[in-house]
């Protein structure tokens, strides 16, 4: 089994996800880890714009990346980008390779949870309703417009390498969401939320699912819920 990572959206988030695959695999030697193929293409057109107004079309680049991974022998593919999950089902059908669904993994983890849950993500992820529709039964709380601007600023800061500045914006966004638990629904956010409490990072769940799909064993380190 070979795990494929369809990445580059953004590059730092892709590197972070691969690091999680390593850290979350129960291993005592090199040979206990997964075989992994990574296709990181930062030139994929903007996914948020594609969802919001259709002004970009990332799908051809995403499909080309999935086909590259298939050619490298990937037997399952993960996309460490929430907004790109808007295209996930079509990608799986057109590429012929199964994809691990990060939203579905989050739905399973949150099943039966009561009370409000914050949702911090890109405008595209929120507008598409990926979590609101994909994780039913949860009382989702999204940021106000000012809070969303802080999320946008945090994501932009990570993309330009300013983690300290991104952390400031993230903390402001998190403070605006009145919920005991918030889902980090953008893969840049975990890079600026390392000291945060009361957050759930779905890429932890994605990593564990990929490890299991490839015959490995995740370490006993479930995220907070």
TrEMBL record:
Protein name: Aspartate racemase
NCBIfam families: asp_race
Species in which this protein is naturally found: Amycolatopsis echigonensis
UniProt KW Cytoplasm keyword: no
Record keyword Aminoacyl-tRNA synthetase present: no
Keywords per UniProt: Isomerase
Highest taxon above the source species: Bacteria
Entry-linked PANTHER family: ASPARTATE-GLUTAMATE RACEMASE FAMILY, GLUTAMATE RACEMASE
Family: Belongs to the aspartate/glutamate racemases family.
Matches recorded under Pfam families: Asp_Glu_race (PF01177)
MF-aspect GO terms: amino-acid racemase activity
